[in-house]
Amino acid sequence: MTRPMLILIALILLPWLPGMPLFWVSLANQIGISAIVAMGLVVLTGIAGMTSFVQAGLMGFGAYAAALVAQSWGLSPWLGLPAALLASGLAAVLMGAVTLRLSGHYLALSTIAWGVSLYFLFVNLDILGRNDGLSGLPPLSVAGYRLIDVRASAMVIGVSLLLSFIATRNLLNSRWGRALHALQGGEVAAASAGVNLGQARLLAFVYAALLAGLAGWLFAHLQRAVSPNPFGLVAGIQYLLMAVLGGAGFLPGALLGAAIVVLVNNWLQDLLPLLLGAGVNAETVVFGAGLVVLLQAAPTGLWPLLARASAMAHHPQGRTALPAPSAPNATELLQATRLHRRFGGLVAVADLSLSLHKGEILGLIGPNGAGKSTSFNLLSGVDHPDSGRVMLAGTDATGLAAPEMAKLGLARSFQHARLVAGLSVIENVALGAHLRGTASPLQAILRRDRAEEAALFATAARALDRVGLLAEADRPATSLALGQQRLVEIARALAASPAVLLLDEPAAGLRHAEKQALAALLRQLAASGMGVLLVEHDMEFVMSLAHRLVVLDFGTVIAAGTPAEIRQSPAVIEAYLGAAA
Amino acid sequence: MMDLSILLALLQDGVVSGAVYGLLALALVLVFAVTRVILIPVGELVSFTALTYAGLEDGQIPEALPLLLALGALAFLRGALQDRGRSLGSLALQTLVLPAAIAGCAVLIAPLHAGIAVQAGLAIAVVAPMAPLLYRIAFRPLPEASVLVKLIAAVGVHLALTGLGLLCFGPEGARGPAFSDAVLTLGPMILTGQAVWVIFCTTAAMAALWAFFRLSLAGAALRATAINRRGARLVGISPDRSGLLAFWLAGLIAGLSGVLIAPLTTVYYDGGFLIGLKGFVAAIIAGLGSYPLAIAAALVVGVVESLSAFWASDFKEVIVFSVIIPVLLWRSLRHCAVGEEE
């Protein structure tokens, strides 16, 4: 708490130093406001991987709301703040409802269309003063003292910037932050861990919009006038430039990027007319070309080049793991009845029926292309059968999406490990316990989630310990060897404390000793009542481990029984070795 | 308020501008399919061609020539850097010699008032080569980047070109000469010669593209790259060359659109952006994938625009860009995650 306080005091006092040029203070104000918008883009683009060109437009909502409240309706400027947040937040919810299901470039393109539309909306609405905008806003005032001096504005902006920084950092270091990280490349794994992806996307979009709205409110009262130009598409591009320039994945990068863009912009506006004559819009050339050069030369932005990325977050230490949830009463944990799945003309799975009991390890084996991974996806809600039924712990789970399956007590690993690149090993594991936490994003921002976070991380640590990787807890997840990444996936599944565990080739890439340890762990889990279903190529491993085996070939079950029975089955021998001539 | 002849005139306007948006939508779909670049700067190429074409009517030496030469020099340097000096000869031919030759011709032909057809061709010849040059400068060095990164780069190129456009052409708008001043009266409809020309040219261009894709080897290579880039590479189709070709075609299409639109409206240096964006609306409605759907969508966009210009001219742009929303909504309800990358 002391360091933020020191920074705050410095921010407030610095402008009042004797001899500090007011022009610098006013530049710093611009930087501060821009950095708040860019911070929203760090969350949205850098962390969650969604590009938005409409942040300036959302900022416009905040600014116009502030102007309407304080100027047109003559209310207190402070009432403009909730109005600004409400306006930009509501706009984001509405836009998000329509566009957020889109991903990747479709979302980015639609934000360009939004950006253009909003600008023309601002220009053409009478109530917003059309091209001229609204002017003559009153300044903010505190206890009758009107904050007209730029140094007084700097205090408000400094406090806003600091609070935004802390709030954003808190949000990113929470179960919601981990879910947001997973939106960039870890969607399937996150969904299987119970994260509602649509909700997480909307969270990122609305949060970024709220920061833009706050910046809009500050901007309106700093300029004491609002007009459409600062909220057009070009401004939206500039905010994105700030985030990308600073390093879209790093919060301090937002401030760095904002500072560079504002200063260069100011410098160009002074310098270029001297070089090229007035009326030449040369800063757009410099920024446009700068963006291209930057993407080619330093795609991760400047911050990671300056500061050795100490991005690994501090997470709270706790000793008490979450208590295991009560096990389901059904003895038949997972039951699939006559599942079919076709891809075009290819029948990947035909007539698959199997059941998994409490305390049982069931192996699903078969030659390459037999339909094992497809079956797995059908059973875990990642994919849905064309026909057939899936029962999970006595509930009909046919057609449920992965997060609902997770809620019913199913956890899985993937054949190709799907760890979230931006997170450490233990954070990846903690993502698996997402559903076991209850803190809301607001509680996370206010740090009301610390006890719960401590318990989540204790749970994650325990799960990591069980797979023997506790020593690697704080390493970046993707720095591990592939075999270890699979173990992390198993730990992530365990962190959810599931009733049913689905493992896709868990032993691939493991050394002999690691396999033995894994086998011991799986036996122990089964003994505690968990149902374990595994797909495995390593025959020795699966034969010695599974209680029962189901053998697939060309999408159909060709044999089922104990390992001893399977070894004797002529159909299995034929499938693996080919028919005797 | 609105009678049949007004409605028909509006529909005609809509179809004419829709045809131009359709051409641009084709270029955007093509470039996206082959290179995964969303070519935001296509609009600048449109307005640059329109302004050049308008300037040639006054016998002006094209103001875009310095830009063409500068882009050529930059492309040469970027290419030489990326390829570490290999095959400098062919690079120099395409980035230095060709633009210089075009500039030379332009300086000779421009004062002659050689007629509409020559002026139109010259305007396209000056601006279209900028597209492959931009590919070499901005996008070729980012072959494996995500669609998003390429999109941000495209936005950067758009921003830079807008500023350069102001530098070259100045803030004044211009209107090019019509191809034909004829006016045909068909019952209640008054058909302008220009409208007939636009529809004729777009149809011819689309037919030529169709023939190129279906009948020529280069077209087949482009289609192969669009369908499966890795596969195309494995059978020996260079992704670089496909990318260049796609940008060449996009440049030519944008140039043609610029010449077609120049007589219809006053074009400013930055006016192409909105024109290009309407091509985008059409291309996005078509899912950045289907050519016929993109053209149909472009016609709808044109008609919506012209009708909303009549009823609510202030909100014309808002309405046009909002057309995209019900479509996106429909797409998002149909698929859970449209546009998952690659």
Explain how this protein is built.
Chain A folds into 3 domains: 32-306, ABC transporter involved in vitamin B12 uptake, BtuC, CATH 1.10.3470; 314-326 and 419-496, P-loop containing nucleotide triphosphate hydrolases (Rossmann fold, 3-Layer(aba) Sandwich); 329-408 and 505-581, Rossmann fold. Helix content of chain A is 55%, strand content 12%. Chain A contains 23 helices and 14 strands. In chain A, the strands form 4 sheets. Chain A has a 6-stranded mixed beta sheet with strand order 10-11-12-7-13-14, sandwiched between helices. A 4-stranded antiparallel beta sheet of chain A has the order 6-5-8-9, covered by helices on one side. Chain A has a two-stranded antiparallel sheet with strand order 1-4. In chain A, a hairpin with a 2-residue loop joins β8 (387-392) and β9 (395-396). The longest helix of chain A has 27 residues, at 197-223. The N and C termini of chain A lie far apart (78 Å). The mean pLDDT of chain A is 86. Chain B is mainly alpha-helical. Chain B has a single domain (4-334), classed as ABC transporter involved in vitamin B12 uptake, BtuC (Orthogonal Bundle). Chain B has 15 helices and 2 strands. Chain B has helices at residues 4-35, 42-57, 65-82, 88-109, 116-127, 130-139, 147-169, 193-215, 217-227, 229-234, 239-261, 272-285, 291-311, 316-322, 324-334; strands at residues 183-186, 189-192. Chain B has a two-stranded antiparallel ribbon.
